[in-house]
Specification:
16 strands, alpha+beta, 383 residues, single chain, two-stranded antiparallel sheet
């Protein structure tokens, strides 16, 4: 009889993901054995299984790139991806610089089409390309991973040989101003790599597609501030960098965003961790290509040791190893995190209810966080 009951219990179907209740069989007490009760297993198999709760958030999809009604402003939206955010889950200045470059190039392609070389096939620009000589980025706040950002860009005449391109960066969902940027561009002959004049017909054509009167994303009084001379020997250095093949861009040289990434390596660790980069002013002096070795130098323009909670500034310089050619010079301004994050409080408050709801779901049952990126998708319902 004992063996028959053991066989009946062990022959019960195995139900995955269910907790098997156990009971003591009086006949097995003397043997000290515990076996699953067949009746208990069968009852558990018929019991409904609760669906795990899922904390989810529906994220609106970026809108298609488009022009303003008068076709003088180009607008494009981007979602901050995980590989574009740092340990604090926020985008950094490298992400922002790449987005500025991307929307600027897309603006040109939208107007004139894609080129076989360079970024856009502007009519009348045979053997000529636009090259940035100066750029200034000013950030009020950095978007978080998953945030949808909107960039607006437009250009204007800026002297006899130069043009200017500006950008505004906002949170596409809230309208919050995140930052702005401005840049100065010249044209060079792609074959001789020398400065060239913009053809008059070309200038007339693109000025018809620029805002009138011209707009300035950053007040004119705050732009084109001369960068100081570098004082030798350098107080700050970073490891020598090498231009990689993957750093090359469609214009045939190392992309200028790589210069910014290299230069930031000279920032002292305590400043990098306790401060936020709020502004960078860059002068592009020369180009470099894959294989070039670049020395990175820096010097503080403020007293970093004071610790008085004021903004800190640094001067940066990149030059080629061997020939000593200066490639890039910049000034960076850093604000203490407590000051920089004040502007984030209002935006974070709007998401407090969502966070509380997600926390409650997690406490109630095992949860899986899911972000539905396609606005047309239907998120799973909570069980």
């Amino acid at each position: 009889m004992l063996r028959q009951r053991q066989a009946a219990a062990l022959s019960a179907p195995c139900i995955p993901q269910l907790r098997l209740h156990r009971c003591l069989c009086r006949q097995l007490t003397a043997l000290g054995s515990i076996v699953p009760c067949a009746a208990t297993v069968a009852a558990a198999a018929e019991a409904p299984v609760a669906t795990p709760s899922v904390a989810h958030r529906v994220l609106s999809a970026p809108k298609d790139a488009r022009f303003s009604e008068d076709r003088t402003v180009f607008i494009e939206e981007f979602r901050i991806r995980g590989n574009e955010a740092g340990p604090d889950q926020r985008a950094n200045i490298i992400t922002i610089a790449n987005l500025l470059q991307e929307v600027g190039g897309n603006h040109g392609v939208a107007m004139w089409g894609r080129a076989n070389s360079g970024f856009a096939a502007m009519p009348g620009m045979d053997h000529l390309i636009f090259v940035a000589t100066r750029m200034q980025i000013r950030m009020e706040a950095y978007p978080k991973w998953g945030d949808l950002v909107r960039l607006e860009t437009y250009f204007a005449e800026d002297g006899r040989l130069t043009t200017r391109r500006d950008w505004r960066i906002t949170n596409a969902d809230t309208g919050e101003l995140l930052g702005a940027a401005t840049s100065t561009w010249v044209t060079i002959n792609v074959e001789s790599r020398r400065l060239a004049k913009i053809p008059d017909k070309v200038k007339q054509r693109f000025l018809q597609l620029s805002p009138s009167p011209p707009r300035c994303a950053i007040p004119a009084a705050d732009t084109r501030r001369k960068l100081p001379e570098f004082v030798w020997p350098p107080q700050l250095t970073a490891p020598i960098q090498r231009g990689r093949r993957s750093d090359m861009d469609p214009n045939g040289h190392v992309n200028n965003v790589a210069y910014l990434a290299w230069a930031l390596e000279v920032i002292p660790e305590d400043v990098y961790q306790q401060y936020q980069l709020s502004e960078v002013e860059m002068d592009f002096k020369a180009e470099c290509t894959a294989g070039d070795q670049i020395e990175c130098f820096g010097m503080p323009l403020t007293d970093c040791a004071s610790g008085n909670g004021c903004a800190q500034q640094f001067l940066h310089l990149l030059r080629k190893v061997g020939c000593g050619t200066e490639v890039w010079r910049a000034r960076t301004t850093w604000k203490p995190h407590m000051v920089a994050q004040q502007s984030d409080l209002a935006a974070d408050a709007s998401s407090a209810a969502l966070i509380a709801a997600a926390a409650a779901a997690v406490a109630a049952a095992p949860a899986v966080a899911a972000a539905v990126l396609n606005g047309k998708s239907h998120p799973p319902s909570n069980g």
